[in-house]
Design the sequence.
């Protein structure tokens, strides 16, 4: 908890984006989380990503459930739409909002408790349906807000702060997302913004269900020796398969890489991701290979990070349902009540 | 980069931009906090220790601190450091009991001081309480030097000057007024243990152009005229006055003229308005008193009617720059301009003159006929003679005179003790963490967004009526508090301990000014290109620290840090702490106490 008001002054030479905003313009209220919480770094990454993409804040809807992680939308994009829903229900609220207005950018922010315990079903179904959104799980392996009980993503054998060993096996949310049909799947670490920020940008530009599992140490309850979600543990066991370097719309950074290590990934809407491969063998388009790669490395005790899978021709829920282009609130009465003749036609088709 | 050695006395001193820029290194943020706390006498005493003349300087200082003030880099204008000093002087209680007492026992050493200006007075103030017998000689009847004879009373009331000079005289200093020293050789023969030359730069430059001799009756040298005004020998001037020159003397001349009958007073400068030497606030005050300033006009001739001045003729020029960027004023070819007037005040510069120092008495002079003086010790080439103030390196200002005085006092003390004067006492540093509780700090770290507050002025009609009536009224307590809160407390330093850091980035994320970066080390120029925010101000240091688990370094750009303490507040491990570094320059007296 911080009591000092964050001063409005900013660095005089702060870069501005296309809209004339600095990254400070994308902030929200000052965080009330514990000092040092990984979630705050993810907040900073989201701010940076939206700033760099020159997103108009009013075009974003940020939706969350309950938990320290779910509190974070208050701390970024103070001028966006927001809905702090009930525990585990972010996906259904977001799906509804998205169906009503497909023009907004949907940021779903959740925790491992919120999404892997009480909201596990919601998590699965919204990815399965291909809701066009960024689904960020701020994964600390505990229920932070309720004082650090193990969550469903805590690894078997890892130790709680008081020394209790977790005997349940862990849910790997990335594994589930891959299996269930998310069209963009990534994992990153709150302590590595260089990797995380481009992933969030790519996920925002991705048209479809984009899932990012961000390991985010809970400094209050899960940052001790014996934890597998601590800063030290994650830094030691991080196995990055690739880095996203830049995206369309930005001047390319000229860096010389060894041949074969750079891959251009064209997305459905024409945007291009440039992937710097750290593991030359890794293929981001092979869902099956991704899943076995993940399992293989998990067995070695490694945490695989990077862009793990992206579908070439992703489609979203609106495409599946063939819904109208215009947001529902923009439809006129005539569109919504097309008249008796049309009703008769529909009725006839159902007879 | 090498990790920063924060124990080096200058490192954090430089971060306190104002204090670093002050020639006497006054602990500015400390006295501003005391003003905010309503402790005016304490604030006064801190100033008195450092700069000797808080009430005088609070009205007249050239304020080198203000352009340096960090607030000017993060917002539009610096903190009104100078005028807050005046607040301490205006609202203090009787502080006489807190001043040093005259030495109970003299140490048998006699020091002669030539000139009773701020430089000599500062030397005497430092030395007298230690038992030195200080004898100040001045050709004028009263102490104060140019503070008395030049600075007009509407900027510096006599009562303020008298009060602060008296504090010094009360230390048991002998002032010999009306005594001009005519020979250095003779003075040296009197066997003083040391001599300090604080005789100023007493000669006003003249303008030798046609008509100068013929119309001499109404052409006056600015500083001579001002001192005559100050002594009451002159109390009026013609209705139409032209003041030549663009420095602060010109500003005092024109504003004094307005008060002595000048109705149509004009300042004319050779160069451009922007390049004028006068401080911006002096120009502002003059223009506010309906004094226009004309620029790019070079005086050609004083016009006269059989010896009666009729005006000044000027050639119109413009600035041209050669390949090396040097400026030249070249005629524009436009017709000359004539400014009709009744009196002219020539304020085109001031010079040193040492007619009373025989050139063979052991004091070496350089090719500009200035004494050779060591800028650290203020020593001349004569082992017993020291210089300071305007006499040392040409005309400067009061605060430099005071700073020179402190340095000379240290040298004189060391000389009299038989110690090497080249060895200087290090500053005294007092470090204290400001942390009181998890979210409690013992300084006000909330950043006030307020713009600089203006000092209220006396009504113009009233001020112009009386040359002794002070124009600036000073801040009242309420305004002073608001202005004081604009100070960023740059002496409360961000101190980093690498071993404690878990590299969680909380400080990076919270810092409102993007000062902090965790990254791979590199050389400074390259490192500056990849910090969280542009770090182009190379006059400000990068604070580099290692000992991090990932092998990276913490780099903090000191440039625009607000000293808000948010980094320390958000750090879960206490790797950042806010620590107050009180840095006091060691004066002669303290140096001897430290040894005792
Ligand atoms: C018009 C004007 C306005 C100024 N305004 C400001 C201002 O607002 N703020 C500021 O900081 N500075 C100002 N200054 C500059 C400031 O007054 C000087 O820099 C400062 O006073 C220098 O101090 P000093 O001790 O070296 O010498 P001075 O103050 O010049 O004192 C020297 C003294 O030595 C005496 N003396 C000289 N020769 C002899 C001798 N042979 N025997 C005996 N006595 C001798 C002189 O009579 C004089 O009293 C101003 C200067 C002028 C001319
Ligand atoms: C329906 C319901 N059940 C239980 C809770 C209690 N509760 C609040 S937060 C939370 C867990 C949050 O864990 P996570 O999503 O991982 O967030 P974190 O605090 O770790 O970021 C629980 C169980 C609740 N608020 N509502
Ligand atoms: S309890 Fe844990 S998750 Fe919650 S704010 Fe504190 S550190 Fe972050
Ligand atoms: S005190 Fe800390 S948080 Fe505040 S501006 Fe300075 S570095 Fe940033
Ligand atoms: S907040 Fe503290 S522990 Fe975290 S990175 Fe900054 S200094 Fe290190
Ligand atoms: Mg959690």
Sequence:
């Amino acid at each position: 908890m911080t009591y000092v008001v964050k001063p409005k002054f900013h660095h005089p030479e702060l870069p501005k984006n296309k809209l004339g905003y600095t990254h400070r313009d994308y902030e929200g209220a000052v965080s009330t989380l514990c000092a040092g919480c990984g979630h705050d770094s993810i907040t900073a990454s989201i701010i940076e990503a939206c700033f760099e993409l020159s997103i108009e804040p009013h075009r974003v809807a940020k939706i969350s459930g309950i938990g320290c992680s779910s509190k974070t939308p208050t701390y970024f994009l103070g001028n966006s739409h927001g809905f702090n829903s009930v525990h585990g229900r972010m996906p259904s609220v977001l799906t509804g909002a998205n169906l009503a207005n497909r023009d907004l950018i949907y940021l779903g922010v959740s925790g491992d408790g919120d999404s892997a315990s009480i909201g596990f079903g919601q998590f699965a179904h919204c990815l399965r349906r291909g809701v066009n959104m960024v689904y960020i799980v701020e994964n600390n392996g505990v229920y932070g807000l309720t004082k650090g009980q193990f969550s469903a993503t805590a690894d078997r054998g890892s130790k709680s702060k008081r020394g209790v060993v977790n005997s349940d096996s862990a849910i790997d949310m990335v594994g589930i997302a891959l299996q269930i049909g998310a069209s963009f799947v990534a994992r990153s670490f709150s302590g590595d913004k260089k990797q995380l920020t481009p992933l969030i940008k790519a996920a925002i530009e991705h048209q479809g269900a984009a899932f990012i599992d961000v390991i985010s140490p809970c400094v209050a309850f899960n940052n001790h020796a014996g934890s597998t979600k601590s800063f030290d543990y994650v830094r030691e066991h991080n196995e990055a398969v690739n880095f996203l370097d830049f995206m369309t719309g930005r001047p390319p950074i000229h860096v010389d890489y060894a041949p074969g290590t750079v891959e251009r990934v064209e997305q459905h809407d024409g945007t291009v991701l440039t992937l710097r491969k750290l593991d030359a063998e890794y293929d981001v388009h092979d869902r099956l290979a991704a899943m076995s790669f993940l399992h293989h490395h998990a067995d070695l005790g490694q945490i695989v990070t990077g862009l793990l899978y992206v579908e070439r021709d992703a489609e979203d829920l609106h495409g599946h349902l063939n819904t109208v282009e215009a947001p529902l609130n923009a439809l006129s009465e005539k569109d919504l009540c097309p008249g008796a003749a049309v009703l008769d036609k529909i009725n006839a088709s159902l007879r | 980069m090498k990790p920063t050695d924060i124990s080096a006395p200058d490192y954090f001193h430089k971060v306190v931009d104002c204090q670093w820029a002050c020639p006497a290194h006054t602990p500015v943020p400390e006295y501003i906090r005391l003003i905010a706390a309503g402790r005016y006498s304490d604030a006064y005493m801190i100033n008195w220790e450092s700069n000797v003349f808080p009430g005088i300087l609070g009205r007249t200082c050239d304020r080198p601190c203000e352009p340096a003030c960090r607030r000017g880099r993060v917002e539009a204008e610096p903190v009104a450091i100078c005028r807050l000093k005046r607040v301490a002087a205006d609202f203090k209680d009787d502080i006489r009991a807190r001043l040093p007492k005259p030495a109970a026992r003299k140490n048998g050493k006699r020091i002669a001081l030539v000139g009773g200006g701020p430089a000599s007075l500062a030397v005497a103030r430092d030395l007298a309480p230690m038992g030195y017998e200080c004898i100040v000689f001045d050709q004028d009847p009263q102490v104060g030097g140019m503070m008395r004879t030049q600075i007009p009373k509407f900027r510096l009331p006599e009562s303020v000057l008298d009060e602060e000079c008296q504090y010094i005289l009360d230390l048991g200093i002998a002032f010999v007024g009306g005594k001009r020293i005519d020979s250095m050789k003779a003075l040296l023969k009197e066997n003083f243990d040391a001599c300090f030359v604080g005789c100023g730069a007493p000669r006003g430059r003249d303008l030798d152009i046609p008509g100068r001799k013929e119309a001499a009756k109404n052409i006056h040298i600015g500083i001579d005229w001002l001192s005559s005004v100050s002594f009451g020998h002159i109390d009026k001037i013609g209705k139409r006055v032209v003041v030549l020159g663009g420095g602060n003397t010109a500003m005092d001349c024109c504003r004094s003229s307005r008060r002595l009958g000048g109705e149509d007073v004009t300042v004319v400068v050779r160069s451009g308005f922007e390049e004028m030497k006068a401080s911006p606030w002096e120009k502002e005050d003059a223009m506010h008193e309906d004094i226009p300033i004309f620029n790019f006009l070079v005086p050609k001739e004083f016009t006269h009617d059989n010896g009666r001045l009729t005006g000044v003729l000027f050639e119109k020029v413009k600035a041209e720059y050669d390949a090396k960027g040097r400026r030249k004023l070249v005629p524009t070819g436009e017709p000359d301009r004539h400014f009709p007037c009744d009196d002219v005040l020539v304020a085109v510069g001031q010079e040193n003159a040492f007619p009373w120092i025989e050139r063979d008495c052991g004091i070496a002079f350089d090719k500009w006929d200035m004494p050779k003086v060591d800028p650290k010790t203020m020593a001349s080439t004569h082992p017993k003679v020291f210089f300071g103030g305007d006499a040392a390196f040409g005309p400067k200002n009061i605060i430099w005179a005071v700073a020179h005085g402190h340095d000379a006092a240290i040298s004189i003390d060391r000389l009299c003790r038989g110690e090497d004067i080249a060895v200087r006492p290090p500053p005294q540093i007092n470090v204290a963490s400001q942390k009181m509780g998890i979210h409690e700090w013992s300084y006000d770290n909330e950043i006030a967004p307020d713009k600089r507050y203006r000092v209220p002025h006396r009504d113009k009609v009233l001020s112009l009526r009386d040359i002794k009536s002070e124009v600036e009224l000073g801040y009242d307590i309420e305004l002073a508090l608001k202005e004081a809160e604009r100070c960023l407390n740059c002496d409360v330093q961000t101190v980093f301990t690498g071993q404690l850091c878990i590299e969680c980035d909380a400080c990076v994320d919270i810092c409102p000014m993007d000062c902090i970066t965790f990254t791979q080390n590199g050389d400074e120029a390259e490192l500056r290109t990849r910090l969280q925010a542009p770090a182009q101000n190379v006059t400000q240091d990068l604070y580099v620290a290692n000992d991090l688990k990932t092998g990276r370094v913490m780099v903090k750009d000191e440039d625009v840090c607000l000293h808000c303490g948010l980094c320390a507040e958000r750090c879960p491990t206490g790797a950042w702490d806010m620590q107050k570094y009180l840095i006091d320059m060691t004066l002669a007296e303290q140096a001897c106490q430290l040894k005792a």
Summary: The longest strand of chain B covers residues 308-321. Chain B has a mean pLDDT of 95. DSSP finds 23 helices and 24 strands in chain B.
